[in-house]
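for the record, two folds in this file. i put them one after another cuz i was lazy. first one right below, seq on top, structure tokens after. the second one comes after a little note so u can tell where it starts
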Amino acid sequence: MSEDKREVLVVVLCALLGIGFFAAIIAGQQVALGWLLIAVAPVMFIWRGLRLIAGLRQRNWLTVEGVITRAEVWEHRFIKHGASLSAPCLDYRYNVNGRVYEVKTEVFGRTGARAEVLKPYPPGKAITVHYDPQHPERATLSPGNRSWDYLMLLLPLGLAVFGVGLVSGQIFPPG
């Protein structure tokens, strides 16, 4: 599973947990919810920290020339709700020590971005690919972390503080 797909999965799970959190508060289960948040926060902090470390390591990856093989906007329509989800996707190919690697459908940018993001990447264009020298099959076009990655490290801290507030009765006191 690609890193971007994992990020989407985490966002969906967080949304479901958020619904569960409010349901627990409405049902008067603030203390149990608080302990759950306190328990989950360190796991999330470690996971985000490892993600940041991986992004920092990408800065030391080697580079090689590659070529764009596909650039298009992936779109999924939810017929039942009339909504749609779109994401620009790039496929590219590169060669390391005589072996050809292909990256299929890397979500480039974030969900909801449109085709203008892909304009600089027409199929056939030469690009710089950053790859892991230990595992050449791991590659990216944009190494390192985004500012959002650093901000996401604060989320577990906020959850822990909120959990302590619930357990202590300072937030949504039972009654």
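(here's the note) second protein begins now
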Amino acid sequence: MRSCDGRQRIGGGAKQSGPDAGQAFALGLVVFVAVVIAVVFWRRRLANSREDPAVPRGCGAAVHLFGKPLRHLWLARSWFAFPRAAQGHNRVAVRCGHIFVLKEHVKGDVWLTTPTAAAGARGWTIVDPFAGRSAFASA
């Protein structure tokens, strides 16, 4: 079979349809990378949904409130030992694996927190670390 410029074509007359080997490899690589990214994202989300005992969560809040890193307050679940309270300045919002210090009321249940960000306190347990300040806070 001859092409338009008069040269002989080798390999038969039918043109291959579909991607060539390079395009197929690139497509497979894109799909592989997308799957890896999805797996990493979901594993991190799952890991962040439960408290890892080896990761300190409350250290920064302890330093902010008490001026020093109190080791017994590094885990978020330790903050549940403080008495429950209403939302207020320097109160701590606690949930499994996460805490933040309420600094300034914005509106409704929205507060400026540490680090400086706006967060809603609805659905969190609010504790007052200064209510029973006896031996627990100074240990």
